[in-house]
Amino acid sequence: MSTEAPAREGWDWTRHHRWAGDVLLAVVLAALLSPASVGVVRDSGLGAAWTWTSYLAVVALHVSVALRSRAPVVVFAVCAAAELVLALAPRLHDPGTPASYPAVLVPSSAAYLVAAYTLSAAGRGSWPLLSLLVGVTGSLLVATRAWAAGPAEVDGGVGELLSLTGLMLASVLAAWALGRFRRLRADQMVALVERARSAELDRDRRRREAAAEERARIARELHDVIAHSVSVMVRQAEGGRYVAAKDPQAAAGALAAIADTGREALGDIRSMLGVLDAEVGPAALGPQPTLEALPELVERVRASGQPVELRVEGDPRPLDRAGHLAAYRLVQEALTNVVKHAGPDVRTEVLLTWTDRDLRLEVTDHGAPFQATEGMAPGGRGLVGMRERLQLVGGTLRAGPAESGGFSVVGEIPTASSVRGRR
Which phi-psi region, left, alpha or beta, contains residue 295 (left: φ > 0; alpha: ψ -120 to 50)? Predict the structure, then answer.
């Protein structure tokens, strides 16, 4: 069994129960330092008042450590007051030697450094700086009293006094610097976590946008395929029904055309919906139609009884795959609308004009204006889908009544060389 999970659980429990760590630290410090501190105070013969006052200061130092995470400012204030008491207390003496030293140097004073570190790391606003000023001022106060007592009373003379002053200042500065470093690291971790969260939210937003775009693309593809195929199949079925009694062979041809159209539509639908299956790779998807499939499309519509003529003018230019698909779908949707709205036997022209800059596609029927526009409200998916598709490839769409009296759909798609030139 892996040890990572128990270790992680232990770390999480400690992080959410800091009071337990504080209590443990206070107990350890008290067990290690308080016996020596109490013994030195007891053996120095300070008198009952100062002895018990020093005992209380030592107790306050150790008890405060247990509460440092809950109230760092209060704990620092208590420890600073306890250190002030020890700084004002009479000097302590080692038994059997004439040398003395300030009571503030008892081992339990290390608890003050813990409190100063905690306030520097967790304090807000000006509290960390204030803790540094208090520590430096206290160190200088103790050093001043030691100098006032005279080097002769200190073992080692002037050198010992200088070492004492440097040690106290260095301890205060080290505790403060470690606290600030801890705070800086904590702020950096918070910033990294926030940055990671923002990045994750941004990735989620991009995934949602990509999914929405894919759904919209599939909806347009399904609309184009289904609307066109169903319209052609309905037209073939109606024609076959009328000629079934008189010309069974023609009816059989209509049924065959319906079957071919249905199979092609199912293949297109299966190809498009395949992108929704994570297990289907790109190789499993069928190829998307291009302009080379336009003659077959026109022939299929013509076979349904709708007279359609396809003309191409100009020399073909390079066109990317998205442009090919957009052009094919535009003609398919326009012819579907002709079958649905223009009425039977309405002559339709499909004109492709190649220029140096773009491909112009024009699908015009010669039906009655009312019939040509009936059912093609601005909110319909047909024209809206065509316009969106062309906009995605940098093209434009115009649709409206034609001069011939019918309806005209005109789209322009920039060629590949034109797109590169604009970049």
Answer: alpha
The torsion defined by the Cα of 170, 173, 178 and 184, in degrees rounded to 10, comes to -150
The residue ranges of every structural domain in the chain are 4-155, 290-423
Instruction: Specify the CATH number of the domain 290-423.
Output: 3.30.565.10
Q: pTM for this one?
A: 0.48
Strands (E), 126-272: none
Nearest to 335 by CA among 367, 362, 366, 301: 301
Q: What are the CA-CA distances from residue 281 to residues 138, 207, 284 (Å)?
A: 74, 19, 6
What gap in Å lies between CA 58 and CA 38, rounded to an integer? 8
Q: At 339, is the pLDDT very low, low, confident or very high (cuts 50, 70, 90)?
A: confident
Tokens of 270: 């299966």
CA distance 387 to 384: 5
Buried b or exposed e, range 208-239, using 16+ CB within 10 angstroms: eeeeeeeeebeebbbbbbebbbbbbbebbbeb
Q: How many CA atoms lie within 13 A of 359 on its CB side?
A: 28
